[in-house]
Amino acid sequence: MDHHTDAFVGLDTSKSRNAIALADGGRGGEVRYLGEFSATQAAIRKLVAKLAAKCCHLTFCYEAGPTGYCLYRLLKSLGHDCLVVAPSLVPKKAGDRVKTNRRDAVSLAKLLRAGELTAVWVPDERHEAMRDLSRARQAVKKDLQGKRQQSRH
Fold it and tell me: Can you list the pairs that 85-94 forms with residues at least 24 positions away whose Cβ atoms lie under 8 Å?
């Protein structure tokens, strides 16, 4: 990989491993699948440092999901742009039903480079803590209501 100005990185995230693809800047830039890497902070930091040494400006993206926003916050803290996109807003080709980590990462990198992705709002830690507290409260409330109904029968 030569030294490039811009690079767009698509991540297909999961709890243990992330599939990563890189699209060089420019309309005809090469798109490469880099493989799957551990989803640990140390592995991500190492990969980002390696990519940053070869590219002047990195922009990352991944689909919102159960992995949360920790990756977003890590990438931002390392000084890079990052978009979290809603899976329902990612353009898909008609009839393209085969889902693989590799294909998803490559597709995200291409769509990011083309400017075809819509970012979602990423809550900060305080907002997330309030949301978690609210959800826990609702769960307890629902649980207590269920116990009351059981005791009536």
Answer: 85/61, 85/117, 85/118, 85/119, 85/120, 86/118, 86/120, 87/63, 89/117, 89/118, 90/63, 90/117, 91/116
**How many Å apart are CA 17 and CA 31, to the nearest integer?**
20
pLDDT digits (tens, 9 = 90+) for 110-148: 999 999 998 888 878 787 778 778 888 888 888 888 777
User: 11-42, pLDDT tens digit by residue?
Assistant: 999 989 999 999 998 877 899 999 999 999 99
Sign (positive or negative) of CA dihedral 30, 36, 41, 42: negative
